[in-house]
Amino acid sequence: MSQSVKFSRRQWLASVGKATAAGAVLMMAPAYAKGSAGKVVVIGGGFGGATAAKYLKRRNPAIDVTLVEPAKTYYTCPFTNLYFGGLRTFEQQGHGFDELRSLGVKVIHDYAAGVDANGKKVSLAGGESLDYDKLLLSPGIDFRWNALEGYDEAAAELAPHAWKAGDQSILLKKQLESMPDGGTFLMAAPANPFRCPPGPYERVSMVAHYLKHNKPKSKILILDSKDAFSKQGLFQAGWERFYGGLIEWVPLAKDGKVVRVDAGTLSVETEFGQIHKADVLNIIPPQKAGAIADAAGVTNESGWVPVKHQTFESELVPDIYVVGDATVAAPMPKSGFSANAQAKVAAAAIVNALAGKPQAEASFANTCYSLIAPDYGISVAHTYLLQDGKIAEASGGVSPADANDTFRKLEAEYGVSWYKAIALDTWGTRS
Amino acid sequence: MYTATRVIGYGALLSALMAGPGLLPATAAEQSTFDVTVLAASCANCHGTDGRSPGSIPSIAGRPESILGEQLKAFKSDNPPAGTTVMNRLAKGLSDEQLDALALHFSQIAQSSPSQEASKP
Lengths: 431, 121
Hints:
The complex is a heterodimer of chains A (431) and B (121).
Chain A: H1 2-5, H2 9-26, E1 39-43, H3 47-59, E2 64-68, E3 74-75, H4 80-84, E4 94-95, H5 98-102, E5 106-108, E6 112-116, E7 121-124, E8 129-131, E9 134-137, E10 141-143, H6 153-156, H7 167-178, E11 184-189, H8 199-214, E12 219-224, H9 232-243, E13 247-250, E14 258-262, E15 267-270, E16 275-277, E17 280-283, E18 287-289, H10 291-295, E19 305-308, E20 313-314, E21 320-322, E22 327-328, H11 336-354, E23 359-360, E24 363-373, E25 376-387, E26 390-398, H12 405-427
Parallel strand pairs in A: 1-2, 1-9, 2-5, 9-21, 11-12, 11-17, 12-13, 19-22
Antiparallel strand pairs in A: 3-4, 6-7, 7-8, 10-18, 14-15, 15-16, 19-20, 24-25, 25-26
Chain B: H1 2-17, E1 32-33, H2 36-41, H3 44-47, H4 65-76, H5 87-91, H6 96-107, H7 114-118
Helix pairs in contact in B: 4-6
């Protein structure tokens, strides 16, 4: 170990070069497509997919990497809450793919329609077919339409989820801006697991910030399908301090579970039959892995994707790696940070596998900042290592409850700095 | 299973083609090795790619190994430096050897841009 510890970056790069030379020998092996150091197709241009494509190329530029992503500009979910709070524009959420192209990644703007795992081919909606030696999926989430009665795609046009960034975010922002002072912003928060565990509560904080300064007679009601949530104590203390009685949270145990949505009247019904009427209705519906994961056969009965945590290769289908929100990676949360961290482990695993080298020890981290008020941030941060092949927390926790305002302000600033760093790390974009 | 067998198969193929040192033993695919670039990759999430920060979180690229190592161990201690936010919570999960490896790794990366780094002798 001490020898490999002293391995310098330059030596490591040199060894990658040797591995590539070895790859030239391996090319004779029949499993490799089209005489290269290997051909990798990445599906999804979010935090997981774009990071994977970049780090595959950084580790071995000889690998043929193709990224499939429908959007020419990818808009991130993280920080859309600051857009709702009026602290940021929607355009600041957008990231393009120029850096990946400059690294030699072939970027195709199309939908991945299907995966032939036996023939190792991806078919695109536009008709093209892509061969792969290794496939990496970073499909994010899809919604379980109608799992919550009355909530389907049409209902989402009236009662937005805004849980994928895009038109839905803009719709929710417009509704918030046209809501009358004295109105009710009602959020239905989902049961676990779901994308971005602290997200609903940061959203409520930022909506409260907007309402306090623009429509101070308004109310926020959160109807929750669970009894506890991420950073709960810190959020609730922050709400009390900045927003007084503006926010009411109703847990599962107090009839918080929404079981039916009537988008036409902007009302919801709870488990025990209470009807709540909203002026703006934000439904965060039950979720599952993005559709291409189903098509590839890598999901299990839960709708999510079980993976080997050492490499993030599917437990069900060889040579398909899956990272990000779609995977079963608890205790890691479904976050952009986690997707980025998992993508780097998967990229290293793919490069090593293509070169016939042993796998590197996997390690991960996650830090999620949430903003309660403009100068008042909180965080949850963990380091993760493998124990018996499964991801386990090595350390971590939430910001201290008794931290002073300087600490909270620093975490608000670090949140902004984090976004800049991860956007640069993932897409090479500066915001 | 399928994958492991295949990797081992390639190991054997390599042995046959290029007998010599540095080849993988057939069992290598079952073991994992330490690669500091994998451990360091998560740092980039906040400190920037290769430890060059675009924001107010400090850059760590090209800082002296001894300073980085001392700082990481101070973060890990039960009395972290004043102003510490997340780093106490993160560093506690890593061994001193891992922290030393990170300190060496980031000390060897140039503070300047990748293109400047590439032009160095």
